[in-house]
Amino acid sequence: MSGGEKKVRHVLGLSGGKDSSALAIYMRERVPEMEYVFCDTGKELPETYEFLTRMEAYLGKKVMRLSSDRDFDHWLKVKGNYLPSSRIRWCTRELKLKPFEDYIGSEPVINYVGIRADENREGYISTKPNIKSVFPFRDDGIDKADVIRILEESGVGVPTYYRWRTRSGCFFCFFQRREEWLGLKREHPDLYEQARAYEKVTSLTGERYTWRQGESLDELIAKEEARELAGVRPERVVRRTNLPLVHVFAEPDDEPNDVDRPCLICEL
């Protein structure tokens, strides 16, 4: 390397989800100098933090926790109390992408992203010119079944939230399905109450600020509990026990486009 060249850094962002975790396991011996990072919003599930500790034990390296210098509540005020949504994802920009890009700085970086070979999506990570994103799973033909195998064979397994939730992300992530909100209420009633407290109704205008368009969490939970009492099964049953991972993750990636899918840095 000449004196004027900068050393290229290798960085892999963990979300707490199955794909980025499997990629970290897959790349551990291939890129020993890898830096592992996790963008911590301060609003993560406790199962996510526990899983990161397991990942650190397997990787033999510390996972750097990156965070914004301003928390979610600060940015909520800045945004006029408009809760983030699939169309306005300010939470991802301020609490995930910006801390990641600040950590990267201006040095040349190869960023490893866990998009699988069986996924037809691109998604947004960063547009900084010094960051080159690569997709080892796509390049090597690794699909969902392979990801499951990597996780199982490593002994790391998956976060326990997969018993009732299908993806990683903040405990109040607006991409949660209806039954996942019900799961949050039952698994973590304290966190559910925190999410519920963010919802507001403006008394003068009647304008509603809710996590889901057209209904509050109270209304959602009431409907889901009524469905249960009536014996109506949800379209997707999230809670599963004593099932192999191949069944747990057998659901299709059915979101029609990237606008309706969680951000890569949150979900993978």
Structure, described:
The structure is a single chain. The protein is of the alpha/beta class. Helices cover 38% and strands 9% of the residues. The chain has 2 domains: 180 residues, 3-Layer(aba) Sandwich (Rossmann fold); 61 residues, no CATH class. The strands form 2 sheets. Strands 3-2-1-4-5 form a 5-stranded parallel beta sheet, sandwiched between helices. A two-stranded antiparallel ribbon has the order 6-7.
Summarize the helices and strands and which ones pair or pack.
Blueprint: E1 9-13, H1 18-27, E2 35-39, H2 46-59, E3 64-66, H3 72-78, H4 90-104, E4 109-112, E5 131-134, H5 136-140, H6 144-154, H7 178-187, H8 189-198, E6 200-201, E7 208-209, H9 217-229, H10 245-248, H11 264-267
Parallel strand pairs: 1-2, 1-4, 2-3, 4-5
Antiparallel strand pairs: 6-7
Radius of gyration, rounded?
19 Å
If classified by CATH, what would the architecture of the largest domain be?
3-Layer(aba) Sandwich
Helix content: 25-40%
The computed structural class is alpha/beta
Short description:
This protein is an alpha/beta fold. It has eleven helices and seven strands.
Give a quick set of tags describing it:
alpha/beta, two-stranded antiparallel ribbon, 38% helix, single chain, 9% strand, 268 residues, Rossmann fold, five-stranded parallel beta sheet, 2 domains, 11 helices
